[in-house]
Amino acid sequence: MHVVLIPGFWLDASSWDPVLPALREAGHTVHPVTLPGMESRDADRSGIGLRDHVNAVVRLVDELAAGHEPIALVGHSGGGAVAHAVVDARPDRVARVVYVDSGPLGDGACINDGFPAQSGEIPLPAWDVFEKEELVDLDDEARAAFRRRAIPMPARVATDRQVLSDERRYAVPVTIITSTFPEAAMRELMAQDHPHLRELAKIEDFEIVELPTGHWPQLTRPAELVEALVTALRPR
């Protein structure tokens, strides 16, 4: 299976390095993505919005689809919004989506309009901006390494509204790997029609897998994350 790995905010394709060997050993062809404007700290990201990130992954999916091998998307954090929009654009070409501490972002919503922007980009904020649950297992050494590698995000990627149009996206199977929010709490909020989980509730076939750690399991618990990914990507 082709596995397209979409990073979250402030990260490029290299953030997936810890999980690549095991995915390859499991027989998958992996495609970690560096999204537009995230090539380096010096990249021009002034005009880049959420749709630019979506379109970049759509183009990759179209290229891979020519080989007739199944395609799966894995989206971490804000990369989950990108993955969901790609499924909406190509519901007939994606076999499964895996959201890593993320989920499908519904039409009209934005990823996060609360991060402070500077000159059209969002640098990695101070750690106290994040919830304590997000920082579990991210010790001082890991935080320093993260900050050294962090690339500012195009501000519009965080604030642009999601645009979806094809309800066939709900038929594509989904795995949620949740690290910071228990499954029971997620399902309770879904039953209450919480707006953040309304789109997930419409998915016809989804599972929730708990991997307790912070918001960046590929950095804090890579062995456990790759085990969960390999399981999620097995033929059903």
Automatic annotation (TrEMBL):
It comes from the Bacteria. InterPro entries: AB_hydrolase_1, AB_hydrolase_fold, Sec-Metab_Biosynth_Hydrolase. The keyword Hydrolase applies. GO terms for molecular function: hydrolase activity. Residues 3-228 form the AB hydrolase-1 domain. Pfam families: Abhydrolase_6. Gene3D superfamilies: alpha/beta hydrolase. This is Alpha/beta hydrolase.
